[in-house]
Amino acid sequence: MNDLDPVIHAAARLRICATLASLEEGDRITFPRLQELLDMTAGNLSTHLRKLEEAEYVAVDKAHQGRTPVTFVTLTRRGRRAFEDYTDALRALLGGTS
Amino acid sequence: MTDHTELPTPVDPDDAPPSADEALALIRSQQTALERDQLSGIPWILGVWGVAWSVGFFALWSGYEGGNPWFSIPLPIAGTIFGVFLVGSIVTSAVIGMRLNRGVRGPSNFSGAVYGIAWPVVSLGAYLMGVALALNGMDGELQSLFFPAIYALVAGTMYLMGAALWRSIDQLVLGAVIIVTGTVAPFFGAPTNNLVMAVLGGGAFLVAAIVMSISLRRAAR
Description:
Chain A is of the alpha+beta class. Helix content of chain A is 50%, strand content 19%. The longest helix of chain A has 17 residues, at 77-93.
């Protein structure tokens, strides 16, 4: 299990990465929508996003739509690659199937 | 992330590393749930159109002379039924369609927007083409053959475009059947063409709605 990226290898961050990776590359998702898709509390999601952000796997941008501030989250190129490597490593651990 | 409350999480169960197979299962279930969430509105769109085509064209068939042998509906009422179902379906699918990719900004918005705007633009174009033909002497009977057929061609082509954009076999099959419906219906002559539209076209939408809703449910298991 030592080969698995510790930044991704935690249930919550795994789900966050899986969700962001399924968006088209370059697409950004709003924080509330991501929260809704993951069914996580805002605090919990923020905590895990920060860990992913520190590893530069995720970029968090703030923008304004009219007067409302909107937080957008996206998987960086580095994050996307790390997630792919992580799933490859998982599959290799499980006997190299599919 | 400053505008979201940070909760202290000293012992975070979400932080526990799962086993490799648990991790893979977690990824799969999250992506399936996501797909289901994003696509769950589509069977509704198809179902609404299925009912609209079935009921609307059946009403028209029952409105025209020489149509439904069992009962008839006065043509203005049949036309109104058709119109109400048509407008209802347009509104329903626009509302559901706009919610499909909500909260997401980026390259995929372009595909969605082009697709979403193409629907009313091409439909209006086809309608105006019919109006021009009518103004240039196309009689009522030909109009009743032309309008459903051209509309089916537009709708069928849009579903093929959807199939290409979202790599959806369901939409590919539906688009093909709708195009065949639009092409074949006029050969039956008026008003039988309306029955063909109701049965073949409306039926295709309803079958597609059921198939898609079953496959989404299966994927969620």
